[in-house]
Amino acid sequence: MEKIKLEKEIRLEQQKQEQELELKRLESETHLKELEIQAKYKSESDSSPSSSAHRSQPYFDASRYIKLVPKFTEIEVDKYFRHFEKVAANMKWPKEVWTLLLQSSFVGKAREVYSALPMEKSENYDEVKQAILKAYELVPEAYRQKFRGARKNDNQTHVEFARIKEQMFDRWLHSKDVGENFVKLRQLFLIEEFKRCIHPDIKTHIDERMIDTLHAAATKADDYALTHKLSPNKFYQARSQKPKINTVTE
Predict the structure, then answer these.
(1) What sections of the sequence does the record tag as coiled-coil (predicted)?
(2) 199, 225 in Cβ contact below 8 A?
(3) Disulfide check for 190: which of 132, 184, 206, 214 has CB 3.0–4.6 Å away?
(4) Which tens digits make up the pLDDT trace of 177-205?
(5) Could you tell me which of 182, 65, 71, 81 has the C-alpha nearest to residue 133?
(6) What's the CA gap between 125 and 100, in Å, rounded?
């Protein structure tokens, strides 16, 4: 028993040391980022005609606010970004330092994605956000597939399944920035139905582009069909053609 207890204490001590080293590493990275931003501001202010006005502005000390950054969770990544944006807006943090504050909280896949980004993209909050959402497959198309593909299992009540379906639908709409805008919602469903009825290659072509209106989707579809010489009739004939039944006559 004493041996097991001793081994447990050693493991706990090792974990504590690893956590302390990780904290120091994050603090070091944050400090380096602060120096980079400070140097960038100084360079911009020195080259600006209104340099004296720039120098009079207080420097943003990110290290003072890192503790206020929400803890990152890989379970609900999309909710995390919405939460962070609310905190940042309420605290009036300049958007150019958001990634500096965020990177200290990243773990797992999010940290890997952030580390792999080029310097210019790692400083852009929107670029960082989209790269991480894409890594976790939290892009509009993934949400759409989850919403369409969700099926009730035997362990769920119908109320539970309806709630999950509703949550998936809301996340799909939020990822498309629809909100309560009826015009956007109308276009979203028209595009969805349009893509369901067209050639798979054209559908893929449309999915790969940020298209918000049915007219834009139809224009892209015609351009693709013309460029790739796709027959407008073959696909629809194949969909509507019923299999022939061979009859045997005696």
Answers:
(1) 9-38
(2) yes
(3) 214
(4) 787 788 888 899 889 889 988 899 999 99
(5) 81
(6) 9
Reported as a single tens digit per residue, the pLDDT across 104-141 is 889 888 999 998 999 889 999 999 998 998 888 777 88
Report the distance separating Cα 235 and Cα 198, nearest Å.
Answer: 8
Residue in this structure with the two tokens 């939460």, named with its chain if needed: 83
Q: At a CB cut-off of 8 Å and minimum separation 6, what does 66 contact?
A: 30, 101, 104
Pick the CATH number of 140-227 from 1.10.150, 2.60.40, 1.10.4020, 3.40.50: 1.10.4020
| Token reading at 42 | 């100084």
Give per-residue pLDDT as tens, 38-89.
555 555 555 555 444 444 455 677 778 888 899 998 878 888 998 999 999 9
